[in-house]
């Protein structure tokens, strides 16, 4: 659950960052696309102005154009025709003005001038006025386009400033969110794990835990309870095993004591048997000798004394004869 949430947060943040970068790139691309026509229009206006200046400076005099002048006028007419066909004009009606100027220049460059013209330079003067009007219209349109681009640049700058404020603020908010909902609970869990390493089975408090971390803390508490139960069972098994060892030790000591007494009794019995054997033979010989001696003594007094000795010897020999 925690890993999935962190992954989802990372993916969401990557998507947001990608969208912001895409917006900035798109805005820059749109700005470049808006600047390209303006740059072409600047070149258009420069060429139009160059044609106007060239014509105005060359034909200040009110005299009929020469053959060389007509070639020059035809070249300028060709230039104006190309400008009118380039579709770089911005002002409405400037193409028509340029077309009329081209027609006037063609008429001025003709070898047979118009007989209805007030003067030989009248078509040229009309062309200059038409080019001047077209240039003024284009400059006005250019200024409007520049103002539009300025407003667009201001809006783009404002959007960039907003993004520059929003991205760090969103990053800070995300860091605070991660710290409060992920890092702080993980630090608490690390502290509890340190206690667990010292066999302190303290349960984690889940009352104030963020719902994101609650399943992890609940699993930790179940693990701690299981380990505590296992530890208690282990202690009980150790105590029971120690008790069994103590009982077995006492039984073994008692058996060793019984065996020791049995060995002592066996040694005593063996020694008694040897002693009885060693005493029985000489005593039996002495008893037999006294019995024979009593039969040979005639004095009653001596016979009684020998009888008493024989009785005592029989009393001593009887136990060791079995």
| Portion of residues within helices | over 70%
Radius of gyration over alpha carbons? Answer: 67 Å
Count of DSSP helices?
A: 6
What is the H/E string? HHHHHH
Strand content: under 5%
Largest sheet, if any? none
Mean pLDDT: 76
- Low-pLDDT windows of residues: none
What structural class is derived from the secondary structure elements? Answer: mainly alpha
Number of strands: 0
Q: Note the gap between the termini.
A: 93 Å
Shape category: rod-shaped
What can you tell me about this protein's structure?
By secondary structure, the protein is mainly alpha-helical. It has helices at 2-58, 67-85, 94-109, 122-197, 214-296, 300-317. Helix 1 (2-58) packs antiparallel against helix 2 (67-85), helix 1 runs antiparallel to helix 4 and helix 5 runs antiparallel to helix 6 (300-317). The longest helix is centred in the last third of the chain and has 83 residues, at 214-296. The radius of gyration is 67 Å and the shape is rod-shaped. The two termini are 93 Å apart. The relative contact order is 0.06. The mean pLDDT is 76.
Quick summary:
The protein is mostly helical. Helices cover 84% and strands 0% of the residues.
Layout of secondary structure:
Elements: H1 2-58, H2 67-85, H3 94-109, H4 122-197, H5 214-296, H6 300-317
Helix pairs in contact: 1-2, 1-4, 2-3, 3-4, 5-6
């Amino acid at each position: 659950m925690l890993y999935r949430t962190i992954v989802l947060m990372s993916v969401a943040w990557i998507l947001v960052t990608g969208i912001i970068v895409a917006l900035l790139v798109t805005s820059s691309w749109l700005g470049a696309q808006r600047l390209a026509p303006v740059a072409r229009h600047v070149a258009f206006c420069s060429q139009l102005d160059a044609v106007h200046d060239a014509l105005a400076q060359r034909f200040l005099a009110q005299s009929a154009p020469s053959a060389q002048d007509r070639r020059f006028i035809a070249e300028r007419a060709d230039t104006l025709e190309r400008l009118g066909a380039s579709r770089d004009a911005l002002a409405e009606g400037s193409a028509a003005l340029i077309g009329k100027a081209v027609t006037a220049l063609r008429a001025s460059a003709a070898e047979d001038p118009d007989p209805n013209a007030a003067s030989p330079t009248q078509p040229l003067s009309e062309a200059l006025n038409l080019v001047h009007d077209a240039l003024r219209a284009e400059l006005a349109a250019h200024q409007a386009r520049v103002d539009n681009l300025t407003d667009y640049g201001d809006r783009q700058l404002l959007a960039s400033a907003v993004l520059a404020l929003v991205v760090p603020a969103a990053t800070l908010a995300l860091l605070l969110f991660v710290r409060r909902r992920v890092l702080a609970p993980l630090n608490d869990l690390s502290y509890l794990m340190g206690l667990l390493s010292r066999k302190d089975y303290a349960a984690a408090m889940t009352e104030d835990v963020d719902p994101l971390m609650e399943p992890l803390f609940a699993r930790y508490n179940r693990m701690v309870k299981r380990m505590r139960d296992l530890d208690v069972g282990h202690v009980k098994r150790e105590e029971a095993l120690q008790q069994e060892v103590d009982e077995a030790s006492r039984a073994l000591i008692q058996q060793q004591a019984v065996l020791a007494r049995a060995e002592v009794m066996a040694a005593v019995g063996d020694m008694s048997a040897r002693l009885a054997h060693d005493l029985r033979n000489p005593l039996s010989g002495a008893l037999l000798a006294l019995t024979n001696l009593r039969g040979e003594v005639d004095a009653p007094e001596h016979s009684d004394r020998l009888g008493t000795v024989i009785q005592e010897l029989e009393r001593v020999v009887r136990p060791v004869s079995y």
